Amino acid sequence: MAQIIDFFAAFRGYYSDGSTFIQIISLGSHHNLSVHISERMLSESGIKLGNFLSATVSLAEHPKNFQLKRLNLQVTVEGNFAKVHGIEANLEKNADGILVFSTNNFASAKATNQGLEIGRYKITVQAVKPSEKDLFNGMKFFGTVEEKISGLTRRVASNNTNQVIGEGFRNMSISGKRTVS
């Protein structure tokens, strides 16, 4: 079944024959899809490096039916890479204990500075180079801090905590409860 997925034209690469491709990386809940598409093919649809787009995706087929999307985000292109600036994100630890920025559009982006304090930040997001994907634990994006917005916004799960989940409900009154049959 085909579905329409949003992408970011994240970086330019080169085929062995010298022609170029644009690596498009899916956004939102489809954040694990990453495909390179001929730059010529994308340009025929008015899409270039640093643009946001949507495409029709179905199993066992390359994305097709590319449509340019206008998002109100600040994008710059430096060489073969596009960067998105001013993204607000929560910094938290993932299941592997790695600090990641949790964003709406870019899912998890690894924090380049692993010594940051948990909190809310304004960041710049950029795609991970294919040659460095192992350094980023399979994540497609990384984030660098522009500025800190606020401190801790929510408690982050940690392996060294002694807090009992649901402890705050211990003293709640349940008088007046009714049995439902």
Q: State the total count of DSSP E strands.
A: 11
Percentage of β-strand residues: 35-45%
- The outline comes out as globular
Mean pLDDT score, rounded? 82
Instruction: State Rg.
Output: 21 Å
Q: How many domains, as an integer?
A: 2
Which blocks of ≥5 consecutive residues have pLDDT under 50? 153-181
Number of helices: 1
Question: Biggest sheet: strands side by side, in what order?
Answer: 3-2-1-4-5
Tell me the structural class: mainly beta
Distance between the termini: 42 Å
Run of helices and strands: EEEHEEEEEEEE
Into which percent range does the helicity of residues fall?
A: under 10%
Largest sheet: 5 strands, antiparallel
Note down, in words, how this protein is organized.
There is one protein chain. The chain has one helix and eleven strands, in the order βββαββββββββ. By secondary structure, it is mostly beta strands. It has two domains: 3-71; 81-150. It has a five-stranded antiparallel beta sheet with strand order 3-2-1-4-5. A five-stranded mixed β-barrel has the order 7-8-9-11-10. A hairpin with a 5-residue loop joins strand 1 and strand 2 (20-26). It is globular and about 45 Å long.
